[in-house]
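The freezer alarm interrupted the setup, so I double-checked each line after restarting. Inputs confirmed:
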Amino acid sequence: MNTPAAALRVAGLGKRYRAKWALKDCTFSVPAGRVCGLVGANGAGKTTLLRMLAGLSRPSAGTAEVAGAAPADDPAFLAEVGFLAQEIPLYRRWSAEDHLRMGAHLNPRWDDAAGRERLQSLHIPLGQRVGTMSGGQRAQVGLALALAKHPRVLLLDEPVAALDPLARRDFLSTLAEAVVEHGITVMLSSHLVADLERVCDHLVVLAEGRTVLADDLDDVLAGHRLLTSGRRDTAALEREHTVLRVERTARQVSVWVRLNGPLHDPAWEQSELSLEEIMLAYLGMSAGRPDESVVREVSA
Amino acid sequence: MIWVLWRQHRAQVAIAAAAVLAFAVPVLITGRKLADALIACRSGNTCGGLFDGYQAMTTLVNITVAVPLLIGVFWGATVVCREVEAGTTALVWAQSITRRRWLWSKLLALFVFTLASSAAVAGLVTWWSNTHNAQVESRFNGLQFDIQGVTPVGYALFASALGFLAGVLWRRTLPAMATTIGGFVVVRIAIENYLRPHFMAPLVRSLPMSSGGDGVPSGSFTISKELTLHGHVLSGPITAPTGCSRSGTRETMDECLNASGFRFRVTYQPGGRYWGFQWIEFGVFAALAVLLVASGVVLLRRQDG
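Predicted 3D structure, all chains:
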């Protein structure tokens, strides 16, 4: 079996605004055909990263490769990449129909019929001004536009953040169908872990402008454990594995850990972690150091 | 991109076209009438009351001095800024069109419109004012220089460019509009008062006291009138020489002052330079417009780089 080529490859990518690095030393790759979740706290650099990948902003450091080419303000590159910004920008006074016609005028591979069918099947009136539509409908129009462009890589910046649960579900199933149908690679940023678990099979986690995790979703789930023990000492553990979070109580210590190999010490009791718990453990770290906390037990 | 621009700005174009048309109708009708009336009254030398009853029309024509500013505020300050403000730039730039092409298309549309609408209004005003010009001392006076010929087009190009740059700086439409109004008025007044009189080296005439300072050729642009004594400019209260009796008539007084070396010195630009001045003023504003557009383009590229 040959490994599929990477659709996204990022090495040492950084972006500086004046003196402050919004993103620094970001390195990961995503194989073609994957749906990759991009996770990070607010201000972690998710939007900055996606804008650079979309060719809308120039990196201050490092390199990026999207669908085999470096992002650039160039028609050939732009045709390969779909981008849906966080606010789902649309012309409020235009109808969905107008937006589709704009797409047809500005893109070489525009699939007008598919765009129309997608919106009609969602019962979105093509003639209605998008300014009068619900947030869910607007998001669907935005997604339909991005998909009708026939990109090889689709970048979505928190597309479902403002949507209600039902609209979110509909949006993500439209996305999932399109991925199956066209084999596109998707990178999607979100705060909502449940949504990521539904559609993603790959994960990139940013914290403080750096990548702290980039891996296949199944490997992520398999490679992280919650370890508990009556012992207090975590030094031996930290030498072999990556400790994300330590919580101490008077009687025991709990350690959220990424296993870098088999766990030898039988003193630790292992349990699986949910994706949400893993995310939280990463987001709680600061400057690469574990999140340490001491919990005082309330006497009964 | 042409379709996109048309879809985006068709309402603005329609409003502007309707306004120009609504202006053209009375201008054409009264312009014809006045031209005929001028020919008729010239033979009888009764042209004094030619514009009686045309007060409203004269006011309407004079109001066109504000047309460049309107173009700058409602077009210049909105065409790019409204997209930046609404975030729709992220929608357009996500299509297979480069940001460079998008921006230049937008600017091209803006300036084609600015040129077309301001030239249409200025052309109508210039034609209508043929009759009016025949009745006034000089085309340099009042608003005549600012609403006729090519200067209004230069002002409009400048106003649009200023609106564009203000929009890039503010990234919000309302403050960009306000900045356009303020900046336009200040620059227009400054150039009109401090630069325009010096576009060409003025001519100077020394006139006898009896002239009262009037004596430059008709159609001239009078810059200054000064009282001189033996060639030196006088300022402040003037004491008549003792030899000149206060009790005499005005004529004997002027006679006496002349003999003592008093003269009026008038600095002026002759009427024949009118079109030269028109093109220079146009050139100054067009050059400013180019400068502002270039700054806006560089700034916009830096903002989102």
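Quick read of the result. The first helix of chain A runs from residue 46 to 53.
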